[in-house]
Design goal:
Elements lengths: L2 H31 L21 E7 L6 H9 L8 E7 L5 H13 L5 E5 L6 H10 L6 E4 L10 H5 L11 E10 L6 H24 L10 E4 H4 L14 H11 L3 E12 L5 H28 L4 H11 L4 H17 L5 H10 L2 H13 L4 H5 L2 H10 L1 H12 L33 H22 L2 H32 L8 H7 L3
Parallel strand pairs: 1-2, 1-4, 2-3, 5-7
Antiparallel strand pairs: 4-6, 5-6
Helix pairs in contact: 1-6, 1-11, 1-12, 1-13, 2-3, 6-13, 6-15, 8-9, 9-10, 9-16, 11-16, 11-17, 15-18, 17-18
């Protein structure tokens, strides 16, 4: 074997992976530092409440019988003149959800709320298709969107709509609120997801706005100007990516429309309590983000935005490329060790840059709560292991996005779990173990093999890095299998198609 060229190839690949991760770490640090430039958005000009614009609230739903009543009731309670408000429930469901929706729609219509249900027998275009199809029947000048797991506060529209009004708001295409969490403290898993989401909204979205750089609509908890969606230069809702929200928001900004993020306007939502549901959500976001990068990356680079803005946008759209880079490092380390090469050199660069994400999450929690920030930030080690363990799942998603592999829009199941006493395991929406767990087992063993190699050679820094991989994949496998076994045990007790627990949750509390 010609060891020289092979060793050089492995070293180049490893250095490229470490350098790529280092740049993402430095980007997180840069975003955190941008917060010093942030100024709270000023509401639009004062207005006559008798002249409020027409608003349509769209609620895209697919098989959400546990949470759809909570969603509809919250939107029906929005503090906005009834004669200026329209609510559309966009129902693509194939189960009991459709009957529940119709019952609740009839209930609120009887109380004077302008609400109607649009049921499609075919999910053409999935969520993007539902939003596109219902727009022709919408009466609103502004379109608010809430996914099934959300519970918007009553003053949401009263606080969001004024930003569109007056001369200052004329060019704003969409307003995005910060996501809150209905079940942050439900489990370690939900606490970790809340920590990650807070980092994105409190630091990343705020920093991009402070720097004047583009950022994305998050798909829910926001309001669009209808004229922006229908602008020919924007192109409306399109279903050729799994992140129709990110796609539309970047096309809008490329066409000259301005975004606005409101960090103090919070739209609470339910976090997935099942690991497999979280992995499915991450897979969809990773694939959709890379699809959007492929679709719009060239337009972003050719845009009239400044060079820093273009680079920031590409980092944003390519954020999930972190996971293939992580996987690459894992696969390269053992061969380097077999070739008696110490991989710590590139790791030193990675270690320097890795201060960015922990600082980002700490600053986010500090801004949210000076009393609770340390306790919430303490979940960072588990979140780190989750990130390492997700690299196979998300790398597969990235590969599908880059390779134009088709695939359905797989929903993230919601269970209406807010208190620790709530359970999701009796629900038929709970997901069965997926085949990816087999690959995670193999990668955990592969990482452990690398640990033994590094120990035999005294490469102690490599041992620490490989143990993170082994622990991350072990966490994925252990939690996934453990939850699956408990779910199967509880599910086996059911003898009816729609279990009693499903029906109780469907009817609210």
């Amino acid at each position: 074997m010609n060891v020289g060229p092979l060793a050089l190839l492995f070293q180049i690949l490893y250095a490229a992976g470490a350098l790529g991760l280092g740049f993402y770490g430095l980007h997180a640090l840069w975003l955190t530092l941008q917060l010093r430039r942030f100024a709270q958005p000023v509401p639009g000009n004062s207005f006559d409440t008798r002249q409020l614009p027409l608003v349509t609230v769209q609620l895209p739903v697919y098989n959400e019988r546990h949470v759809v009543i909570r969603l509809i009731d919250a939107c029906a309670a929005l503090e906005y003149p009834l004669h200026r408000l329209q609510i559309q429930v966009l129902d693509d469901s194939t189960d009991l959800t459709t009957a529940i929706i119709q019952q609740r729609v009839d209930f609120w219509r009887g109380r004077g709320v302008n609400i109607e249900s649009f049921h499609r027998s075919q999910r053409t275009g999935y969520k993007a298709g539902a939003l596109h199809d219902a727009l022709s029947a919408a009466t609103g000048e502004f379109i608010a969107i809430f996914d099934a797991d959300f519970e918007p506060p009553t003053d949401f529209l009263a606080r969001a709509i004024p930003h569109f009004l007056g001369a200052e708001g004329a060019g704003i295409g969409f307003v995005q609120a910060r996501w809150g969490h209905l079940n942050r403290d439900y489990s370690v898993l939900t606490a970790c997801q809340a920590l990650a989401l807070d980092g994105h909204f409190v630091v990343e979205q705020t920093a991009r706005q402070a720097a004047g750089y583009p950022f994305g609509f998050n798909g829910s908890g926001g309001v669009w100007r209808r004229a922006c969606i229908e602008d020919p230069a924007v192109g409306g809702w399109q279903a050729d990516t799994l992140c129709e929200d990110l796609d539309l928001s970047y096309r809008a900004q490329l066409a000259g429309w301005r975004p606005l993020f409101l960090p103090d306007l919070v739209a609470p939502a339910e976090i997935p309590p099942q690991l497999l549901a979280f992995k499915r959500q991450q897979f969809r976001w990773a694939k959709g983000s890379v699809q959007t990068l492929k679709k719009l990356g060239g337009a972003v680079w050719r845009s009239g935005w400044s060079l820093p803005a273009r680079l920031a946008a590409l980092f944003h759209l390519g954020n999930y490329l972190i996971h293939p880079l992580l996987l690459l490092l894992l696969l390269i380390i053992p061969p380097l060790l077999l070739l008696d090469i110490d991989p710590f050199g590139p790791l030193a660069w990675l270690s320097l840059a890795s201060v960015g994400p922990p600082l980002l999450y700490a600053v986010a929690q500090r801004r949210l709560s000076r009393r609770l920030w340390l306790r919430r930030w303490a979940y960072l080690p588990v979140l780190t292991l989750l990130g390492m363990g997700l690299c196979l799942n998300n790398s597969l998603a990235v590969w599908q996005g880059l390779a134009n592999r088709p695939g359905p829009f797989l929903r993230t199941p919601k269970f209406r779990v807010q208190d620790r006493a709530d359970s999701w395991r009796e629900s038929s929406y709970a997901l069965a173990l997926d085949p990816v767990v087999g690959g995670e087992v193999l990668l955990a063993l592969y990482a452990l093999g690398g640990v033994f190699l590094a120990a035999a050679q005294g490469k102690w820094w490599s041992i620490a890095f490989l143990l993170l991989y082994a622990a991350g994949f072990a966490l994925m496998v252990g939690m996934g299998v453990g939850q699956s076994l408990r779910w199967r045990k509880k599910r086996s007790r059911s003898t009816t198609r729609f279990r009693a627990a499903d029906l109780v949750k469907s009817q609210g509390r």
